Amino acid sequence: MKHIGMDIDSATTHISVFSDGGRETIRTKVPTREADLVAFLRSIPGPKRVALEESQMADFVTRMIEPHVTKVIRCLPQHNRLISESEKKCDREDARNLAELLYLDRLKAVHHAPWEYRQLREGVRAYWTASWDLARAKSRLKAFCLFNGVHCVGDKPYSRRYRPRFFEEIAKRSGNTQLLQQRYGHMDSCRTRKAAHIKILRALAKPFERDVRCLQTYPGIGFIGACILVAYLENGWRLRNKRKLWQYCGVGIRRHESAGTGRRGASRKGNRYVKNAVLTAAAAISSRRNADNALTELWRAGVTAGIPPDRMKRNLARKVAVLAQRALRFKQEYDDDRVLTPP
């Protein structure tokens, strides 16, 4: 078995090959093109494993070389301390270190979902990019109005109904109405893009219609939140237990302790999209005026018992994550009785 480490750049790929005896036999670089990479791998006889770090190009390279090798391992860069903390850090040495870690079986592989889930993830990320672009466009529009002395609060500056009024106010203060028109045009363009991304997301979620429908029966989870949970939790069996789930969702506990002393706090890691989905659901549940479901009752009981609201919201987010995982596993819609059962 040959052990191959690849450090991939947009133009060139540095390659190191270790033999089964742990000795480096080849060190070279080739252009990052399909023909060159495939030709190099075919020139190495026998079974071979390839390791490369997760990056923007990792998925493309993996699909390119997978038919020509025994196994491809895409690993987490933050776990490769031999590379990230080395005093000799360059593409050539990184490739050698990857091959050495592969030979020693000390790489932590990244989970890769089936193609349909990967497509849904790409749709989710594109939707959020469009949503953030729209939020920035709105902020810049409001900042332009304030710069010209037009005080504006709420959503009125974004409405077509009140748009002529803002043009009049800017003109009275000798502001540049052409720039205001450009701000509005940019915001309208971002709105159109966001609406288009929602349509794309609905099409990508069609194969998982049952899962999305089940999740939407849970308080605080809408269509976007359901798509995020389906895209990243998949069929619910990806993560073995609730502690792994909480860690992945970014709502676990961060511990720094030694000899019984130290501190604990909220996790600062996890998947930001899933974290946003479960915390948004918790915020929606906690803001309900009427306790019309067991989750809202759980929130009110916790606050009444003296638990700080921010801590109680995280507890609620953990509960939502566990319930969502169970819904994906067993296709179960929301049930108040299930909420009161310990996860």
Task: Provide a quick synopsis of the model.
With about 350 residues, this protein is α/β, with parallel strands linked by helices. About 55% of the residues lie in helices and about 15% in strands.
The portion of residues forming beta strands comes to 5-15%
Q: What structural class do the secondary elements suggest?
A: alpha/beta
The percent range for helix content is: 40-55%
Strand numbers in spatial order across the main sheet: 3-2-1-4-5
Q: Biggest β-sheet: count, sense, barrel? A: 5 strands, mixed
Q: Outline the low-pLDDT stretches.
A: none
Distance between the termini: 44 Å
Radius of gyration: 26 Å
- The helix tally amounts to 14
Number of strands: 7
Let me know the average pLDDT: 90
Name the shape in a single word: globular
Report on this model:
- The structure is a single chain.
- This protein is α/β, with parallel strands linked by helices.
- The strands form two sheets. The protein has a five-stranded mixed β-sheet. A two-stranded antiparallel sheet has the order 6-7.
- A hairpin with a 5-residue loop joins β2 and β3.
- It is globular.
- 31% of the residues are buried.
- The mean pLDDT is 90.
Task: Please name the defining characteristics of this protein.
343 residues, alpha/beta, 5-stranded mixed beta sheet, two-stranded antiparallel sheet, 14 helices, globular
Topology, element by element:
Elements: E1 2-8, E2 12-18, E3 24-31, H1 34-42, E4 48-53, H2 58-65, E5 71-75, H3 81-84, H4 91-103, H5 115-147, H6 163-172, H7 177-204, H8 209-216, H9 223-233, H10 242-249, E6 253-258, E7 261-266, H11 272-286, H12 294-304, H13 309-330, H14 336-339
Parallel strand pairs: 1-4, 4-5
Antiparallel strand pairs: 1-2, 2-3, 6-7
Helix pairs in contact: 5-7, 5-9, 8-9, 9-11, 11-13, 12-13
